[in-house]
Amino acid sequence: MDLSASSSASERVSRRAAIISRHLGEASGFGSPSLVLTPCISFLPPESSEKVSFDTRELRLLLDGHDVEARDWVFRLMEECSLFCPRRRGGNRVFVAPDYNQSMEQQREMTIRRIQFLLERGVFDGWLTGSGVDLEMRKLAMYECIGLYDHSLIVKLGVHFFLWGAAIQFFGTKRHHDKFLRESENYLIKGCFAMTELGHGSNVRGIETIATFDKNTQEFIINSPCESAQKYWIGGAAKHATHTIIFSQLHINGTSQGVHAFIGQIRDANGNIMPNLRIADCGHKIGLNGVDNGRIWFDNFRVPRENLLNSVADVLPDGQYVSAIKDPDQRFAAFLAPLTSGRVNIAVNAVYISKMALAIAVRYGLTRRAFSLSSNEPEVLLLDYPSHQRRLLPLIAKACAMSIAANNLKKIYVKRSPDTSKILHIYSSAYKATFTWQNMKTLQECREACGGQGLKTENRIGILKGEFDVQSTFEGDNNVLMQQVSKALLSEYISAQKKNQPFKGLGLEHMNSPCPVIPANLTSSALRSIEFQNDVFCLRERDLLIRYASEVYQYQQQGKSRETAVLLSYQLAEDLARAFTERTILQLLVEKVKSATGPLKDVLELLRSMYALICIEEDASFLRYGHLSLSNAAAVRKEVMKLCSNVRPHALALVNSFGIPDSFLSPIAFDWIEANSWTSSNSL
Amino acid sequence: MDLSASSSASERVSRRAAIISRHLGEASGFGSPSLVLTPCISFLPPESSEKVSFDTRELRLLLDGHDVEARDWVFRLMEECSLFCPRRRGGNRVFVAPDYNQSMEQQREMTIRRIQFLLERGVFDGWLTGSGVDLEMRKLAMYECIGLYDHSLIVKLGVHFFLWGAAIQFFGTKRHHDKFLRESENYLIKGCFAMTELGHGSNVRGIETIATFDKNTQEFIINSPCESAQKYWIGGAAKHATHTIIFSQLHINGTSQGVHAFIGQIRDANGNIMPNLRIADCGHKIGLNGVDNGRIWFDNFRVPRENLLNSVADVLPDGQYVSAIKDPDQRFAAFLAPLTSGRVNIAVNAVYISKMALAIAVRYGLTRRAFSLSSNEPEVLLLDYPSHQRRLLPLIAKACAMSIAANNLKKIYVKRSPDTSKILHIYSSAYKATFTWQNMKTLQECREACGGQGLKTENRIGILKGEFDVQSTFEGDNNVLMQQVSKALLSEYISAQKKNQPFKGLGLEHMNSPCPVIPANLTSSALRSIEFQNDVFCLRERDLLIRYASEVYQYQQQGKSRETAVLLSYQLAEDLARAFTERTILQLLVEKVKSATGPLKDVLELLRSMYALICIEEDASFLRYGHLSLSNAAAVRKEVMKLCSNVRPHALALVNSFGIPDSFLSPIAFDWIEANSWTSSNSL
C-alpha cells in the first residue's frame, strides 16, 4: 500500500481493492467465509439512506423563531475569517473551532482578536446605542450564533455588553449614557462587572467592599477591607478591561445604605493599572480560558461623585443620600436586574449547544456500526439499537421543546416592564437552571454515544462539557434559583389562600379547576393525547405545591422560622420547581404544535408526546406521590420505546432542522473515515 | 492598605484591623448596625469545630485495605520531586498537581519524565519480573496512588505494564518473557497495545487488520487493508513507544483463524519509525493530553514467526496452524484477558478519585458560608444546609462502600485462575461501569458544591471531570458491559431452570429461598436494619431477573432471535445489572461492618444504612415494580434526610480517613482566604 500524501482518492480506492483481492486470492480455494464476510467498512452519508418527510426549513424557522438571516450572516462571517481557525478535514470539508491546545494566554489573545473582527464587520452596531424590540431580538440571535463558535467569546462579549453595558443603561442616567455607551459599543472602552467577591458569590447582599463619600473632593473612596472582600471572577479584569462597574456597600455619614454600583476606570490608555488598585489573575480554569477572569483589591480607590450609577439612588454634593426607592430590599433587587439578561442568555445558549451536540451524535450514530446480530449479517448502525435510540432521541424532543420555551422567554425579556419583572425573574431562573442542567446531561450522553471520538477536541462535544460546565453555577447557582422558583410559587399559594382568590398568572390557573383524575389503565393513544399529558403535569404541580406548602407550614407549627422551614423542605421544593418548569414548557409546546400543519405537525406531535412521556419516566415524583398507577407507569415506559422507533426515521431531518452550519459540526458528523485517512492527517 | 508583597501575615492582620476600625470610627455616633454586623470573613480550620469520634487511621486501614505504607511511600516520592510541580499556596502549604495550562506536547514530555523518575526510585521493581499475590496487591496500591496525581501518568503506565506487559506475560511463552519482560520493567523497551481500530472499538472481533504467513522468510506480513483498519487510540504510539502488541486477524493458508496477537518493533533505538509503518497523532483531547495516543497503518509490515504470542495458538515453521483451544470463541476470549486487569484498575481508581473530590468539597463546605437565615445571624456553613448535606454525604457512603467492593475485586483478580474467569469478568465489568459512572456523578456534584472555585484547575475537582471522562467508554463501553452482566445472569437463570438446580455463585443463592416479603409500613429502625436492606435488595434483583428472562422469552416466542430479544429488553437489562451490582456491594459492606467494633462500628452502620437507602431512593425500580409501598418509599426519603444529619458530625473525620495527603488536595480544602491573598498570588 502506497501511503504517500500526494495520492488521490481514486488511487487509494484502487490500492485498497488490490490489497483485498490479493488477500482474497491467497484465500481462494480454501473458501474462508469469515474473510469474505468482513469487507472493509465504507462510509455512506446518512442522507443516502434516510428520508425527509417534512420541510426542514419550516422547522428551523419554528425552532430558531426569529432572525434567521442575521444568524446565517454571522455564521458566514465566522466561517470565512482565518481568525476562526478554519481547518480542512476530509475532502473539501472545512470546520471552524478554536484551538484548545493553546495556552490560557494564547486563547485570551485570540478571543479579543475575534471580537475586534466582529466589531469591524458591524456585528455590534446598535447593541448599546440602539433600542427597540426587533433590535434586541436580533442581538440575541447573533449572540446565540457566536456562542456556537466558542463560549469564551460570548462570555467576554456578555460581560461587556450585557453586564457592563446594561448596568450603564439601567442604573445610569443621561450623563453616564452620553459618556460611556457609544465608546463601549465601539469597544474603545472595555467594561467589566465587579460584583462577586472571594467571600460572597450568590449572596450579593453580603459583599464586603465599602464605599464612603469625601465631601471635600466630591469623590467616593472605595476599599477592600480584607482579603475575602477582593473582587473575584471579574471577566476582563485580568488583562483587557479599561473600566468596571464596582458593587459596594455604600456608607454615608456612617449609615449603611446597602449595595450600590459605581463606575471606575481600572486601566489607562496604555493598559497600565490605575493607582490604588491591585489586580491578580484567577488562573487556569477547566473552560473559558479565553476569558481573562481577574481579582481586584481597592485601596482608597477614588471615583468622582458622578460615577455613582444614580437612577435608583444618589448622593448629593453636600453628602446627602437620596433615593427614589425607600425600601432597601427593593433597591437591592433593582440593582440585580442586569443579571436577568445574563440568565436569559445562558438559558438560550444552553439549548443551542445541546442542539449542536445532538446533530453531531445523531449523524455519527447514522454512519457508525458496531457488532453483528449474527455472523452472516453486517454490523448494526448505532442508531438502530433500541438502547441508542433511547439515549439520544428523547434528548432531541427536549431540545426542541426547550427551544420553543427559550424563544418565549426572550420575548418576555425584550418586552420587559416593571409589571413583568416577577415573571421574568421566575421564568429566567427556572429555565436557566433547567436548560443548563439538561445541556450538561445532553453533552455527556452525546459524548458517550460517540465513544472515544467524543473525547477528541476536534469533535467538539467533549470540550463543550468543560466550556459550559460553569453555566450551572454562574449568574445564580441552579439549586438556589430553583428554590427561589418554589418560594415564589409558595407565595402565590399563600396569597391565594389568604385572599381566598383564584390563582392568576404563571400558568397556575389550572389550580382553580377541579383536580384532574387519571384513569388507572391508559391505552397507547390515551398516553399520546394532549389531555392526558396536560392533566398529569398539572396534577403533579398542584399536588406538589400543596404538599410543599403543607410541609413548610408543619415545620413552622413546630416552631421553626419560615426560612428554616423552607430549607428543611428542600426535597419538595426541588420536585415542585421541576414540575412547574416542565408543565410550563409542555404548554408552550402544545400551543406551537397546534398551530403547525401538514407532515411537520405529525412529527411535532411525536416530539410533544416524547417530551411529555420522557419527563414522566425520568421523574420518580409521579410514582412516589401516586399521580400515576403502576400499570400506567409501565405503559409510559413501553410507550417511550415505541416513540423512539417512531422518531428514529426523522432523526436526521430533525437535527438538520437545527440550522447549524456543517462547518460548526465536526469530522465525525460527516465522512469520518476520509477525515481520518492518512492523507487528511498530519504525518509525525 | 499597604498591599506590598513583602508584608508578613501579622502585618496584614493589623492593617486589616486598622481599616475596619477606621470605617467603624467614621460610623461612630451614627450607630450603623449593618456595618457592625458585617465583619470581614475569617477562616476557621474545620478541625477547630468538628469532633472526631472514631479512629480515622483504623477506617483508613479498612478502606485502603492493604499496603498503606507503600502508598505513603509513593505519595512522599511525588511530593518531594520538583517534576511533580509543587506549588506554595497560602502560608507554608504546598500542593502538587500537573500544570494543565501546558500544551499537549509539554504534558507528554512531563509525563515521561515523571515515569523516569519513579522508575529510578524503584517504584516499578518487580512489576513484570516478580510474581505473587502480595506483590500484585502492592503494585495495585501504588498504581492507585500515582493515579491520584494524574490520570495521564497511570494511563501511560497502564498501557505499558498492564496491557503490553501483561500481554507478554499471558499470551507469550518463555522466549517472549526472556526477551521482553526485564527490559520492559526497566522501561528500555516502551510498549503499547494496538488493538482498537478506527472502525472497531468495543467489537474487537470485527477488526480488519490482516496477518498472513510467509514460509520463505518465516515472517508474518501485517497489513491495514483500508483506512478503517488503521489502529486508533494507541497510547504511546504517537511519540514514545518502541514496541507494540498488534492485534490482527490471522489468515493461514487462506483460512481465517480469528484475532491473534503479535509483537512488533515500531521505533528504532533513535526513535525513528520503522519501515513499512505510518504513524499519526490522535490529536488534542479533553483529557489525558499527557498520553501520546497514536494511529498506525501497516503496509506489508513484517515480524518474525517467533513474535506471534503463542501461549494459546502457534504457527509452526512449515506454516501449520496449531492451537490448544479448538473453539475460536474461547480462543478469542483468552486474548481479551488482559483487558480485565484494565477494568480492575479503572474501577479501583475511579473510587479513589471520588474520595479525593469528596475530601475537597466536604472541607470547603465546612469553611465556606453563604446567606444568613436572619439579619442578626452569621451566614450559614454550606454543609449545615440540609440540601448541601443531601448532595455530598450520600456520596461519601457510596465511596466507602465501593472502596470495600474494590478491594474485594482486587483480591479476586490477584488470585485469578481459569475457574474464576467468569466471576472476574462479571464483577470487573459491573464495577468498572458502576464506579466510573458514580465517579463522574460525584465529581459533578462536588464541582457544583464548590461553586466557581470548583472550576479552577488548581482546585482539581473540575479538571478531573475531563481527565476521567474517558473511563466510561474505554476498556469496554459501560452500557455494553452492564448488558453483558445481565446476559450472564440470564444464562445462570436459564441454566438453573433447565437443570432444575439451585442457584450457586455470584451471590444468587438468595434466589433459592422463599421470596422476601416487605411489610407495608416500616419504622425508622426497621429501615435501618440489615434484614430490611438485604431483603429489599434481594427482592429487587430476583424480581428483575425473572422479569428480564420472561421478557426475552416473550420476544423469542414472537419469533425474534435471542440476540434481538436481548437488545429489545435493554430497559430491564439495565435495571437488573444495577440491582445485581448494588446487592453485591451491600453484602460486602454488611460483612465489613459486622467485623468492626467500637465507635467505628456505629459510624459504619450509619454509612451502611445511608448506602442502602440512597440506592433505594435513586432507583425508581423499587416503586415501578412495586417492591416498596408508597408509604415505605416516603419513609425512606425522610430517613435519608435524617441519616444526612446523623452523618454530618462525622463528615470531616470520614474524609480525613480517606488517607489522601493534604498536598494532593487543593487550596479550597484549607485556608482559601489566605491562599487567595495578594501575597500568595502572582502580581500581573
UniProtKB/TrEMBL annotation, chains A, B:
Signal peptide: none
Binding site for FAD: 196, 235
Taxonomy, superkingdom: Eukaryota
GO terms of molecular function: acyl-CoA oxidase activity; FAD binding; fatty acid binding
GO biological process annotation, one example: fatty acid beta-oxidation using acyl-CoA oxidase
Reaction catalyzed: a 2,3-saturated acyl-CoA + O2 = a (2E)-enoyl-CoA + H2O2
Major subcellular site: other
Organism classification: Eukaryota, Viridiplantae, Streptophyta, Embryophyta, Tracheophyta
This protein's name: Acyl-coenzyme A oxidase
This protein's UniProt keywords: FAD, Fatty acid metabolism, Flavoprotein, Lipid metabolism, Oxidoreductase, Peroxisome
InterPro entries assigned to the protein according to its UniProt record, in alphabetical order: ACOX_C_alpha1 (IPR055060), Acyl-CoA_Oxase/DH_mid-dom (IPR006091), Acyl-CoA_Oxase/DH_mid-dom_sf (IPR046373), Acyl-CoA_oxidase (IPR012258), Acyl-CoA_oxidase_C (IPR002655), AcylCo_DH-like_C (IPR036250), AcylCoA_DH/oxidase_NM_dom_sf (IPR009100)
Occurrences of domain Acyl-CoA oxidase/dehydrogenase middle (ranges): 192-300
Record-annotated Acyl-CoA oxidase C-alpha1 domain positions: 339-490
Pfam families listed in its UniProt record: ACOX (PF01756), ACOX_C_alpha1 (PF22924), Acyl-CoA_dh_M (PF02770)
Annotated family: Belongs to the acyl-CoA oxidase family.
Domain Acyl-CoA oxidase C-terminal: from-to ranges: 542-665
PANTHER family for the chain: ACYL-COENZYME A OXIDASE-LIKE PROTEIN, ELECTRON TRANSPORT OXIDOREDUCTASE
GO annotations of cellular component type: peroxisome
Matching Gene3D superfamilies: Butyryl-CoA Dehydrogenase, subunit A, domain 2, Butyryl-CoA Dehydrogenase, subunit A, domain 3
Cofactor: FAD
Active-site residues per Swiss-Prot or TrEMBL entry: 475 (proton acceptor)
Cellular location(s): Peroxisome
